[in-house]
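Our preliminary data section would be incomplete without showing what the modeling component actually yields. Below, a chain of 164 amino acids is followed by its predicted structure, encoded as tokens that our downstream tools consume directly.
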Amino acid sequence: MTEELEFDDLSRQVDRARQHMRTLEILMRYTNNVPIDAIVEEFKMSRTQVLRYARLAGLPKRPKGFDPEIKAKTIEYYKQGMSLKSIRNRLGVSEAYISKTAAAEGLQLRRPRREEKLPTGVYQLSKNRKRYGARIDGKHLSTHASPVAAASAYLKALKRKGKK
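Predicted structure:
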């Protein structure tokens, strides 16, 4: 009976020691600025738990936002005229972050999209409801949800007109 009790006590002590070692590993990674998502993935725990361990250990909160180097690179690439998409792919930041950073620096914001050029014989019926029409000689032929469908209707009407 005494041996069983000693074994149980020893087993609990080993479990506690393992838990302490795990907590120390988590705190070391947090201190070394390993991304919290990577810690969560490695230790199969929640972000909240990682942050709780850090607070209980008295570690300071990490600053929000991106590394100042990423911010500087974002501004540099933006000034060079790189597209938002290529900056996003190169630095791993969102297009919204790029725009906000550029605006905060006082840079002129670029339009993310260009106006689409419609094919001959196709026109946009309304701005808010993307509807397109096909027309020949000023006469409206049909209404479509896409410019491609309207262009197709225009080409078919041209062929029919040519046969008459």
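Strands lie at 122-126, 131-136, 139-144. The mean pLDDT is 81. Preliminary results of this kind motivate Aim 1 of the renewal.
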